[in-house]
Amino acid sequence: MDTSYVIGIDIGGTYFRIGAVNTQYEISFLKKCPVRDIFTTDVPLADLERYLKEYLAESALTGKVTAIVIGFPATLNRERTMVLQAPNIRFMERLPVVEWLTAALGIRVLIERDVCLTVLYDIRKYHIPMCEILIGCYFGTGVGNAVCLDHRPLIGSHGTAGELGHIPVLRDREACGCGNRGCMENLAGGKYLAKLCRDVYRDTDISDLFRLHGKEKPLLKFVDAMAVAVATEINILDPDYILIGGGVPNMKNFPRGLLEQRIREHTRKPYPEQDLHLIFTEDEQTKTILGSAYYVEMNR
Ligand SMILES: [Zn+2]
User: How far, in Å, CA of 274 to CA of 69, rounded?
Assistant: First the structure.
């Protein structure tokens, strides 16, 4: 009988998700709650330790867990021991997450950018053959990005490779959550859509934006900004595969065909444009948690 699990944790800006993944890549003991319900004191790591001890006890998983993997919407240090910058969860920055939890729980603890776990899941789900370069572009509130070499997410000299959302764009000076101005994700991330609902389409629910206004200039401009982001990375890397996912491309009536057309328009001819392997991935709430198990497998 199977008794070994990887605990995957997805700490987002709003929700905290946790699940236990067995060796067959099935999730059990899945839980979701607001992040603020977990971190209630001014010692976030003690809060997390307490929560995990309770979770392991009530799920009867104590002694059956080979590793705990935490995905953060953040930049991490190269050694993957702490969060460097996390605009949506500032309280986790510069804390010795791995050291603290490993000592407290006696279980191997790994941390990674959430998007790197997501892309590992998508690689398996969409049966992507081993390849030299694969990129994942995930359009949520911001723009998540992972560049994989031989299916391994690129880390970078300081741990911060793959920040497509924060490449600077001309003629934009808007402040970004990262502290810089004029970042791509201000124009190509879901926060642009939220702004449209505040400033332009005040009576429209964000989920109806593409259904009601998809052919209008502000949304066409948005889709083009997404395409510019993806095509920029394609033109630099000439990837074997391009995965596009996240909440935005999975919105009701999102014009995937138009996005692909715009990406092709901005991509260099004849190659890589003539041989693009572009795959739209579905949005699933447990991707990061399942990806955690693949991450442990990759880092044995
Ligand atoms: Zn930025």
Answer: 39
Distance (Å, whole) CA 152 – CA 122: 13
Q: State residue 1's pLDDT score.
A: 53
Ligand 1 centre to CA of 176 (Å) is 5
Q: What are 227's two structure tokens?
A: 């395409």
Expressed in angstroms and rounded, the spacing between residue 71 Cα and the centre of ligand 1 is 19
> What is the whole-number distance in angstroms between the Cα of residue 73 and the centre of ligand 1?
13
What are the tens digits of pLDDT across the range 189-224?
A: 999 999 999 999 999 999 999 999 999 999 999 999
State the CB neighbour count (10 A cutoff) for residue 95: 16
Q: How far apart are the first and last CA of the chain?
A: 22
d(CA 198, CA 286): 30
Q: What spacing in Å lies between the alpha carbon of 96 and ligand 1's midpoint?
A: 24
pLDDT band at 117 (very low <50, low <70, confident <90, very high): very high
SS3 annotation, 12-36: CCCEEEEEEEECCCCEEEEEEEEHH
CA distance 267 to 250: 23
Structural domains of the chain, ranges and CATH numbers in brackets: 5-116+286-298 (3.30.420.40), 128-280 (3.30.420.40)
| 121 residue type, one letter | Y
Question: For residue 234, how far is its CA from the centre of ligand 1 (angstroms)?
Answer: 20
Which residues make Cβ contacts (< 8 Å) with residue 4, sequence separation at least 6?
22, 23, 64, 65, 66
